[in-house]
């Protein structure tokens, strides 16, 4: 009965939304329609849209209110990185050694893995670039062999000093930082700094779940599993760090009747994990390391080290594309550190300077991270729309930037939205969502092929996220019909 009632209410809601948005409306009618919805009675809504083809503001509602933007915030670091660093930029990782190699192939010194801020090293997002993890490690081992090294009488060192030690952002929620979207950033990232936990769930609601394996299995992590089985068909399990980074609590629910349900978790020490994997690869290939493994965050690498292998990342434009389409928090954060390092200033200060120099009002902009995970971030809809207009009309990388956006019906986080996606009528947009936050920003091409830059943000709405998504979907369709 409960399920039947829920279905009826959902159908009523969708019919209601369709009726208020289906006909062509004026801008004022659109604002009144959406602002008058009961789901938004206690919400804060901001909306700004400008037709670039005819240079006319078509909707302006609370456009100067500062709202929490969620992942829409990624538009800033990805755009700035393309313009400041260049779309063809690459980030390197080096294998190097100190000391000397004797005639017997003994390295009397240390072997280094030196990170220079590649956010994507070994990532499955770029499997065609790095190939598989084993292949990347084997390439390094082969380069070490080519240098004449048969034995390492020294330490294996991960040098993550390029950015220095990066602590977990203090403005992120505790329930976020151990999960896959809250991974710790480093100068030496590896496999997106993730590991995977596999569960078997029960056949009835409320039954305990069982962890059947962890991949990779050799992390030395202890997990307290409090996850139970649910009729809900979603992953609602959350991972929490304890005082000991090697001990995790997992709470929440997972769908019932799953023999192997995988969730992703933040790797506590990606640099050390990489060293462990490299040491194993060296051992398999007959190269013994006699010393210890060490991660350094302050520059200790000897000046006379010799580089024997260099691995380059995909081009920045490809990294930006994955960042926006898959909403990769780690990549956005690393890009902000590259921008900051280039100018020797904080990312927050540089972003505001970038906007001000280009005539975009930075008042109301609050920057506590680059990816949008912090609820302390603030952004106005006019600010973001003005930035999108700059990127489309004046930025030297505007065309490249547009290609990194999710596209309706094709790819990414807005791929299911019901814009027609004809040659004229389509939408390129970055979405953002967290609990009681839903935001979108990008470009809509209307029925005439005219281009509309827009940003819409809703905070503290009184309905489930899928309903807010449907409200905005109908809004975008209606905007595409504006003349």
Mind explaining what this structure looks like?
- This protein has 483 residues and is α/β, with parallel strands linked by helices.
- It contains 13 helices and 20 strands.
- The chain has helices at residues 2-21, 27-35, 75-85, 127-130, 133-146, 174-177, 270-284, 316-326, 329-343, 347-357, 381-393, 398-402, 465-480, and strands spanning 44-51, 56-61, 92-97, 100-101, 106-108, 111-115, 151-152, 156-159, 194-200, 210-215, 222-230, 236-241, 247-255, 261-266, 288-289, 293-296, 306-312, 426-434, 437-445, 451-459.
Task: Give the SSE map.
Layout: H1 2-21, H2 27-35, E1 44-51, E2 56-61, H3 75-85, E3 92-97, E4 100-101, E5 106-108, E6 111-115, H4 127-130, H5 133-146, E7 151-152, E8 156-159, H6 174-177, E9 194-200, E10 210-215, E11 222-230, E12 236-241, E13 247-255, E14 261-266, H7 270-284, E15 288-289, E16 293-296, E17 306-312, H8 316-326, H9 329-343, H10 347-357, H11 381-393, H12 398-402, E18 426-434, E19 437-445, E20 451-459, H13 465-480
Helix pairs in contact: 1-13, 3-8, 3-9, 5-7
Helix share, percent: 25-40%
The oligomeric state is single chain
Percent of residues in β-strands? 15-25%
* Count of structural domains: 3
Mean pLDDT across residues: 90
Number of strands: 20
The CATH first-level class of the largest domain comes to Alpha Beta
Biggest sheet, in brief?
Answer: 5 strands, antiparallel
In the CATH scheme, what's the topology name of the largest domain?
A: Beta-lactamase
Rg, alpha carbons: 25 Å
- Quickly give the CATH architecture of the largest domain: 3-Layer(aba) Sandwich
Give the CATH superfamily of the largest domain.
Answer: DD-peptidase/beta-lactamase superfamily
Poorly predicted runs of 5 or more residues: 1-22, 409-421
- Compute the separation of the termini in Å: 45 Å
Helical run tally? 13
Structural class computed from helices and strand pairing: alpha/beta
Shape: globular
Strand arrangement within the widest β-sheet reads: 2-1-20-19-18
């Amino acid at each position: 009965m409960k399920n039947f009632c829920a279905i009826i209410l959902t159908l009523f809601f969708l019919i209601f939304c369709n009726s208020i948005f289906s006909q062509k409306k004026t801008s004022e009618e659109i604002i009144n329609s959406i602002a008058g919805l009961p789901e938004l009675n206690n919400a804060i809504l901001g909306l700004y849209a400008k037709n670039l083809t005819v240079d006319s503001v078509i909707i302006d509602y609370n456009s100067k209110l500062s709202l929490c933007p969620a992942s829409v915030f990624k538009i800033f670091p990805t755009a700035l990185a393309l313009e400041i660093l260049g779309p063809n930029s690459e980030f390197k990782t080096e294998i190097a050694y100190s000391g000397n190699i004797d005639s017997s192939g003994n390295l009397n010194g240390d072997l280094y893995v030196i990170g220079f801020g590649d956010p994507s090293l070994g990532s499955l997002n770029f499997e065609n670039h790095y190939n598989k993890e084993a292949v990347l490690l084997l390439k390094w081992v082969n380069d070490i062999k080519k240098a004449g090294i048969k034995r390492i009488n020294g330490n294996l060192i991960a040098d993550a000093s390029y950015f220095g030690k990066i602590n977990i952002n203090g403005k992120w929620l505790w329930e976020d930082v151990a999960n896959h979207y809250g991974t710790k950033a480093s100068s030496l990232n590896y496999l997106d700094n993730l590991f995977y936990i596999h569960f078997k769930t029960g056949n009835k609601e409320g039954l305990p779940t069982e962890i059947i394996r962890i991949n990779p299995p050799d992390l030395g992590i202890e997990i307290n599993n409090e996850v139970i089985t649910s009729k809900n068909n979603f992953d609602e399990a959350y991972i929490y760090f304890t005082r000991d980074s090697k001990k995790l609590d997992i709470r929440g629910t997972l769908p019932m009747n799953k023999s192997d349900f995988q969730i992703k978790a933040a790797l506590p020490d990606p640099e050390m994990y990489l060293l462990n994997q490299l040491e194993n690869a060296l051992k398999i290939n007959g190269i013994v390391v006699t010393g210890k493994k060490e991660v350094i965050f302050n520059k200790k690498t000897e000046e006379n080290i010799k580089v024997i292998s260099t691995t380059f990342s995909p081009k920045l434009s490809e990294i930006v594309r994955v960042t926006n389409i898959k909403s990769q928090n780690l990549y956005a954060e690393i890009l902000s550190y590259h921008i900051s390092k280039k100018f020797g200033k904080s990312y927050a200060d540089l972003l505001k300077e970038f906007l001000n120099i280009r005539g975009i009002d930075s008042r109301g902009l609050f920057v506590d991270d680059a990816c949008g995970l912090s609820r302390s971030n603030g952004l106005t809809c006019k600010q973001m729309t003005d930035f999108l207009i700059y990127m489309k009309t004046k930025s030297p990388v505007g065309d490249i930037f547009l290609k990194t956006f999710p596209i309706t019906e094709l790819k990414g986080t807005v791929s299911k939205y019901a814009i027609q996606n004809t040659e004229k009528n389509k939408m390129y947009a970055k979405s953002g969502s967290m609990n009681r936050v839903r935001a979108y920003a990008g470009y809509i091409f209307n029925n005439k092929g005219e281009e509309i830059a827009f940003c819409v943000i809703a905070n503290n709405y009184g309905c489930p996220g899928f309903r807010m998504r449907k409200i905005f979907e109908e809004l975008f369709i209606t905007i595409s019909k504006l003349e």
